[in-house]
Amino acid sequence: MTSVSPQKPHQKARALKPTSRRPAKELCSECGLCDTYYVHYVKEACAFINQQIADLEQQTHGRSRNLDEPDDWYFGVRQDMMAARKTEPIEGAQWTGIVSSIAIEMLNRGLVEGVVCVQNTAEDRFQPMPVIARTPEDILAARVNKPTLSPNLSILEQVEQSGMKRLLVIGVGCQIQALRAVEQQLGLEKLYVLGTPCVDNVTRAGLQKFLDTTSRSPDTVVHYEFMQDFRVHFKHEDGSEETVPFFGLKTNQLKDVFAPSCMSCFDYVNSLADLVVGYMGAPFGWQWIVVRNQRGQELLDVVQDQLQTQPVMSQGDRHAAVQQSIPAYDKGVTLPMWAAKLMGVVIERIGPKGLEYARFSIDSHFTRNYLYTKRQHPEKLEAHVPDYAKRIVDQYELPPS
To answer: What is the tally of structural domains in the chain?
Structure first.
């Protein structure tokens, strides 16, 4: 096990001081750990310096992935999966509000004393502002994704100073890997981790470039998501919705907009969270829920009576679409909008759905990220790419480096 050993919080606080150093350099995902005195542990904890998912899965879930089981390659350690949606959605939530509802119930029932989540600044709806929420109102103020790099772990010092002993953290894969590596340092009696799948985050400037090149009205976008129907769905201030087919994105202009950390990430499904709530493994209009351990089941239990659920499903074959997408992305191919819309209609009808869509998305990103890492950081390739990701990538023919 490569995570650090525990010591008393007061000893740690005296020995270490906050710093703005970024040991991961250009691969830094700005998770926030380096903004605290926990920076002392960054070389062990950072997902982009020390990839240790298998060890941390064993620590967190009691086992790591079975590499003889392909579903483990894709979805990680789990004890249950389902599709779900709230019977009474939360107004203003990005989907039906499952994540917000879990956080509120955990607070209201006294199961946790605070929730680490991300609000936005008063000046900018997309500028992330990590907080420790202590009321339902604080949690509701954090609803809707902020698709930019967010320093969630920058509040770890506040957690220690608050004296909290029971905490819920909501975050993405790179943040959660660092959190798990320092978990024993936090002095908590109970830590719950609610994760979301994450891919292709950007800086705030990168987000603006994406909005400007993709949306008909970039200044009025409230939130957006890449959805299972192979379209980007934008919600605007006036309540209107806009869709743009994946294949119509200006890839030639956007190819370099994603953060280098995201281009070298192989934890799309948030392997180390207790419970994961996303969309990509569920039918359109539903959320995909992955219960990884007993703590994850406890999180799901608090909202079980608020949900409509159905079993996960899988349909279609992703392989040809993934293989075709590899050179298309590599060369920055952008289709005319009429062709993109036509291709989108065809693929929506006959393409992968449910868990097969999730595999399509994982395959597409892992092959891309493998090539990026091989080309930009060849010295890191062998140690940085997890074994399960290598097995996924090995299914495809990659272009020469």
So the answer is: 1
